[in-house]
Amino acid sequence: METFSKKEKEKLRQKKRKDKQEKKEDRKANAQKGQSLDQMLAYVDENGNISTTPPDPRRIRSVNEASIQIGVPRQSDVPAEVLVRNGVVTFFNASKGYGFIKDLQTQESIFVHVNALTEPLNEQDKVTFSTTQTPKGPNAVDVKKI
């Protein structure tokens, strides 16, 4: 005994099967077999775009392979005198043990922790310091009052 829903599902299956067969026949009829190699090739122009026309040989630029830089360039060694900076303490919370120093040369705000201090600091103190790079940014170390 077939119910209405079973009949409807079977009709849908038959329709899908018929549509699939028609698409298959259409693909076979419109297939472009035997294309020449020139029709199948794609070229990259001087801007990196894919095109069907070969690049103009007059526009080809030569690149010196040694000038291509892969990765991050190595930092040159900086003399020790340059590493010592001058700054002013803009904020310092002694109870929490951290603060910020404003570098007088670059106007950059640099984090300072109480462990990097040689003596206690107050706001507006002039200091000398060195910096180290951390994942969160530069940190002041060897902080001394002037």
UniProtKB/TrEMBL annotation:
Spans annotated as Disordered: 1-41
Pfam families recorded: CSD
Bias type Basic and acidic residues, positions: 1-11, 19-29
One GO MF term: nucleic acid binding
InterPro entries per the UniProt record, alphabetical: Cold_shock_domain, CSD, CSP_DNA-bd, NA-bd_OB-fold
Stored PROSITE patterns: CSD_2
Gene Ontology annotations for the cellular component aspect, listed alphabetically: cytosol
Highest taxon above the source species: Bacteria
CSD domain boundaries: 84-145
Record's protein name: Cold shock domain-containing protein
Organism encoding this protein: Fibrella rubiginis
